[in-house]
């Protein structure tokens, strides 16, 4: 199909050359358009109805509120009415589709009207590629609620989910859930998805899962999205600086949504990534459910952790305590609970966690702000299975 507006006529040319004076002024969002009734009413049902109620007016002034796309959207519709050529593209098709619906530019008023033209472009061109669907989806977000009414957002999400799922099967086939395969997933066209707003991003991922996308493969996508949205937060965390309340609210919603979407399988997210999310959750004061979820996930993979992963700072801004020992204690208990429930307790893993706790105790022992009673409480809550591994280390700390 032709993707440009090519209809012109002698009549329109005479109008555009000002041989016929303007007989209607249309005000939209602070902009004024001096136009002519005939080309507008011939294609716009919305304007035809207004004009029909003002037959006695030689010069009509019309105020149209809430036009999708504002003056830019109306101008595109008006150009079509006048037969002025312009290209449809993935950048303007969402505005064209929404404004044509708003102005009732349907086949009831003209054959090959703008609704039909824009629908044909969407079906035959724009929604055939992932990049096109993402571009249209991003611009459609600014055109609510009309974009939902014409199902632009739903169609874009369905297209993205379909293409992503099919391409993922081709790109990494039956890869198992292991860190060695994560790079292949991350390298695969994720940049097209992480630019979306969080609520739309969530809808896309859920649509992908419903189409059979491997849930374990969501991990790297979610972490890239988290890194983009939480950029700059780590510096504030380290310096214990407060964040603007509006930004804090936005980032909190992003983080809670990301955590709710994390795959349930172990090892799909590295311990260091989980630690980063947990620090952010504590700093942003997310829901307790969000923090406990991350703590449990870290506990299940504690045998892979290094000291930096559990050196979680306390975010009491009065400077009371440097380290958040309560959080680490819960992580440790989650680990032990998982190990005890496992049919095959890994002694090697237990030894690693024991040595990790040794290093952690040595580090927090140097915290002058940490009260001795708090330190002793942590030691006393170390389970016997781990304490046995650490006894040679713990006894000197207790009696010095």
Rg calculated over all Cα atoms:
30 Å
Shape: elongated
Unreliable sequence segments: 1-14, 176-180
The whole-number mean of residue pLDDT values reads 82
Structural class determined from secondary elements: mainly alpha
Proportion of beta-strand residues = under 5%
Biggest sheet descriptor: 3 strands, mixed
Tell me what the structure shows.
By secondary structure, the protein is mainly alpha-helical. 58% of the residues lie in helices and 4% in strands. It has helices at 10-16, 37-41, 45-52, 70-82, 93-102, 114-124, 130-140, 146-149, 152-172, 182-186, 198-210, 218-229, 233-239, 245-261, 271-284, 288-300, 307-310, 325-341, 347-364, 372-380, 384-398; strands at 24-28, 31-35, 60-63. The chain has a three-stranded mixed β-sheet. Helix 15 (271-284) packs antiparallel against helix 16 and helix 16 (288-300) packs across helix 18.
Helix and strand topology:
Elements: H1 10-16, E1 24-28, E2 31-35, H2 37-41, H3 45-52, E3 60-63, H4 70-82, H5 93-102, H6 114-124, H7 130-140, H8 146-149, H9 152-172, H10 182-186, H11 198-210, H12 218-229, H13 233-239, H14 245-261, H15 271-284, H16 288-300, H17 307-310, H18 325-341, H19 347-364, H20 372-380, H21 384-398
Parallel strand pairs: 1-3
Antiparallel strand pairs: 1-2
Helix pairs in contact: 4-5, 5-6, 7-9, 9-11, 11-14, 12-14, 14-15, 15-16, 16-18, 19-21
């Amino acid at each position: 199909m032709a993707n440009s507006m090519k209809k012109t006529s002698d009549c329109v040319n005479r109008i555009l050359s000002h041989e016929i004076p303007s007989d209607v002024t249309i005000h939209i969002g602070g902009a004024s358009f001096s136009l002519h009734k005939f080309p507008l009413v011939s294609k716009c049902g919305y304007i035809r109805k207004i004009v029909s109620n003002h037959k006695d007016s030689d010069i009509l002034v019309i105020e149209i509120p809430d036009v999708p796309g504002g003056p830019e959207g109306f101008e595109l519709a008006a150009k079509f009415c006048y037969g002025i050529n312009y290209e449809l593209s993935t950048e303007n098709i969402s505005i064209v589709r929404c404004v044509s619906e708003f102005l009732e530019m349907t086949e009831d008023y003209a054959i090959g009207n703008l609704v039909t033209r824009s629908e044909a472009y969407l079906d035959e061109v724009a929604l055939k590629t992932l990049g096109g669907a993402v571009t249209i989806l991003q611009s459609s977000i600014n055109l609510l609620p009309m974009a939902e009414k014409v199902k632009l957002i739903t169609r874009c999400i369905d297209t993205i989910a379909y293409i992503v799922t099919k391409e993922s099967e081709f790109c990494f086939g039956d890869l198992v859930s292991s860190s060695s395969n994560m790079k292949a997933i991350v390298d695969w066209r994720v940049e097209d998805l992480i630019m979306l707003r969080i609520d739309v991003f969530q809808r896309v991922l859920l649509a992908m899962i419903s189409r059979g996308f491997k849930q374990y493969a969501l991990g790297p996508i979610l972490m890239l999205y988290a890194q983009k949205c939480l950029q700059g937060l780590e510096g504030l965390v380290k310096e214990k600086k407060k964040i603007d309340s509006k930004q804090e609210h936005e980032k909190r919603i992003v983080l809670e949504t990301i955590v709710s979407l994390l795959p349930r399988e172990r090892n799909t997210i590295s311990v260091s990534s989980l630690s980063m999310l947990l620090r952010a959750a504590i700093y942003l004061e997310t829901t307790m459910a969000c923090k406990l979820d991350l703590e449990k996930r870290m506990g299940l993979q504690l045998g892979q952790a290094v000291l930096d992963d559990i050196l979680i700072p306390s975010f009491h801004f009065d400077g009371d305590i440097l380290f958040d020992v309560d959080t680490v204690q819960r992580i440790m208990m989650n680990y032990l609970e998982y190990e005890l429930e496992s049919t095959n307790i890994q002694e090697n893993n237990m030894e690693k966690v024991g040595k990790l706790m040794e290093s952690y105790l040595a580090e927090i022992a140097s915290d002058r702000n940490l009260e001795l009673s708090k330190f002793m409480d942590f030691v006393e809550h170390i389970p016997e299975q781990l304490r046995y591994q650490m006894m040679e280390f713990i006894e000197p700390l207790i009696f010095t």
